Each structure stands twice: as C-alpha cells, then as structure tokens.
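## retry 2 of 3
previous attempt timed out at serialization; input unchanged, resubmitting
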Amino acid sequence: MPLRLGTQVITLKTRHPFVIARGGSSDYRVVWVRLADADGVEGWGEADPSAYYGETADTVLAALGKLEPHLPADPFDLEQAEARFAQLAPNSAAARAALSAALHDLVGKRLGQPLWRLWGLDPARAPRSSFTIALDTPERMREKVIEASSYPILKIKLGTDRDEEILKAIRDATDKPIRVDANAGWTRERAFRMLPVLRDFGVEFVEQPLPPRDLEGIAALRRQGVLPVIVDESCVVATDVPRVAGAADGINIKLAKCGSLREALRMVAAARAQGMLVMVGCMIESSLGITAAAHFTPLLDAADLDGAALTVNDPFRGATIEGGQICLPTEPGLGVRRR
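## retry succeeded, writing output
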C-alpha cells in the first residue's frame, strides 16, 4: 500500500526581524510533511523554502503534489526514492528534503531507533552550535548579543557598508568566539579590505564573502591566509564539492538547498575526501527541520542550527541547542513531537 501524504503550512515568527545582506523578514512559511504507512505510523519532515533558491511554501506544495504519486511503497527504499524525487523535481530542494526527512523518520520509527544510531554516530561528538546575530543597527545588534548571553559562539551577519562599526559594537559587548557570514554581500575589493579587520576582531572564519560564482575571487581571498573561508551558496550539492575545493577551506551544508539527508551525507564524504572543513547551517526553521539536520552533526566541525531558537512560536520539540550544545533526541526516528 502506498504511503499517504499530509501537509500543513505553518508560519514561523522570529523574535526580531531576521535580516541578512540580501534582505529579510519576521514571518517564514514552512511546510509540515507527514507520511503515513498502512499501519498508521507517521514519518515527519519539514520544507523550509528560500526565495533565493526560487522556492516558497506554495511551490513546495505544488512540488509535493507532483511527487505524491511517486512515493515509495516501501519506506526503506530510501536511495531510489530520493533519486526519483530529484529527477522529477530538480528545482524543489526544500520539498524533497521534507520527504527525505519524513522517510528517514518513518524508517527509524519502524526500527525503533533514532536516526543518529542507525548511522552509527555518537551524539556526544556533535559540535556546539553558533547563534546568529542578524543585521540591524550596530546598537540593536549589540543588544541582541546581550540577549544571546547563554550561547558561547556567535555568528554575525555582515555584508553592509557599516561592517566595521558593527564589529566594534559586537566586540564592545562580548569577547566570545565569533564567526562572520557576509551572504555574498561584498565585492572583491571590499572583501580584501575586510579580511584583516575580521582578523583583528578575532573572527574564527568567514562564510561566503563573495557572490557564489566568483570562485576565483574566493580562492584569492583564501590565498591571503588570513582566515579560513567557508562557502555556502557556492556549494549546493555533492558534485559541487570538487569545484569549490581549490577555492575554499570548507563548505556549509543545508538540507533546504541540497535536497535530502542522503545528499547531505554525500557532501560530508566528498568534502572530507578533499580535506575540507564541514559545517551545517539552516534557514528559519522549526525544531522539526532543525532536528533532521542535527542528526548528522557528529560528523561535522561546526554547526549553525539556531533557526528554531530564533523563533517565538516553534510548534515542535526535538533537538535543542541550549547553551550552544546540540542535544540529539533518543526517541525513534527523528525524535520530534508536537508541543
């Protein structure tokens, strides 16, 4: 009997407007996906669409409608199911990621084991997650740093003409480790000027300093040897890894752009084969979306899984990042439940 698909659009609200170099919002529409088998066991997943990749909640629903007739009869048929989804909906990564998570959740529940255990991972090896300080006035960003006092690592959004002022305001408020994400907001000239500034402010690494296609510029920045350079938008799926390996020190994996848990694991393996650092990031997501990504964090060097912590109406309970420490559920599958 084929799996039954259920969907529900949920609007997540952030505590503060979440603004990056290319804009932002306070409301984010995500799609809760449920797959039920003949015994009534449900697997859950979440689609967290990004307009940057051409997806919205509405396009996700359309893609799910297109993929529904192709759901596997056997939820354990993970590899073939994900390959089929990618072939039928190549531009709908968030929708495919939701189905992937739901299938893995269902498999874990059928076997009575959490996903990290099925992968043979040790949750104690998960890195600490950073907490993001989104763009605002320097004064407001300083206030946000104080609000985030329980998180030991901060990720600072930059990519503006006042970045130096922002960094000074941040450092006036804290001496915690900080990481910087420009979200492709700098020109080459600006990025070269900013590298020594970031170093002087004690930044650990810089993420996506230049537009995704400017790998030559990113490689030139890396050759300066000032800070590790991580790429996000430049590396979407595993086949991108060899192309970016010569330009960057590491990659940032996001389920909403790579399209599935199995593709995320392929990205980890491909990056490790190139000797690269590997981190995982997120969109604004509920704990359902965050937990799916959290299950493979024991394989990684760094994490930025604060998407649910930035919201005020998270409807789920799952993995947590209290005090920055990623804590994985021990319940079967993803281990997520409703509040």
